[in-house]
Amino acid sequence: MRLYVGCAMWTHPDWQEKPIPPAERLRAYSSWCNAVEGNTTFYAVPQRRTVQSWARQTDPDFRFVMKLPRTITHDRRLTGVDADMSAFLDAIEPLGRRLHSLWIQLPGSFTNLTALADLLDAIPSHHRCAVEVRHPAFFENERAITQLEAVLTAAGAEWIPFDTTVLFSAPPGSAAEYEACSKKPNNPRRTRALTEFPIVRYHGRDDVATTVAGWQPWIDTTVAWLREGRSPTVFIHTPDNAASRTLARRFHAEVAARLPALEPLPTPEPTDPMTLF
User: Fold this and answer.
1) Of 37, 33, 105, 118, which is closest to residue 74 (Cα–Cα)?
2) Running DSSP on this structure, what letter comes out for residue 167?
């Protein structure tokens, strides 16, 4: 029984209690969490030697959910992207089994399900895919929801919910919350899994108690998924993400309290500065 948890990044200024070389930060992060969102690939395709370094720093059981480049999803909107997809898949090939899923995050104006179906059909079948949509129709229009689910189910792909209901539950109370609200989508919560490997992105607030209270429905859903034999992945976000690494472990612990057979997370590496005494 395996639950993957993680954050939107593997390095953060508030996580550097002692100096860690850039080439070792992913290794340090992987002692806290067993998965990570690969957001950087949205902006640029990494070089293979960089991806090889990511593989060297992580155990084979660590998992990456890698976002397709924006040239594919946002600039070309999934059409005429064969060369771009080939280059991207070649670049991330060194991850091997660590590649949990390809993350297809679509713009808020995107509704072209034919283009999505064509892309999913063209991706080699050994790659698992998960799609994040943001257009309101996919949350409000039953026909659009049914059509999208049919496309995803036919391809064996998952629907990634980005749950921002807690973030938008009250006016922002800080600059970080204001910035998050200005950039994140505000759509209803969705808890239905389509595959054996559901992926959830949950966004809380600055206040830890509010964040933890807000994820309780996901604790119930995650426990149910695990009991059904699914292997979920949950990513925890906060406005500044300073506490997200600790919160991800707390989420895992709350699930484990209800499912004692759940495989434990690794033991975090010591992060206190070294002293002589």
Assistant:
1) 105
2) T
* The pTM of the whole model exceeds 0.85: yes
Q: Which domains, from first to last, does the chain contain?
A: 1-18+161-265 (no CATH), 34-160 (3.20.20.410)
Alpha-carbon torsion angle 4, 265, 245, 130, nearest 10: -10
Contacts of 276 (CB under 8 A, 6+ apart): none
Are residues 8 and 239 in contact, defined by beta-carbon separation less than 8 angstroms?
Answer: no
Residue 235 has pLDDT above 90, yes or no: yes
For 243, phi and psi rounded to 5 degrees? -100, 5
Closest by CA position to 4, among listed 248, 202, 237:
248
Contact in structure between 7 and 222 (CB atoms under 8 Å): no
- The single residue listed with the structure tokens 């506490």 is 243
The owner of tokens 């991850």 is 95
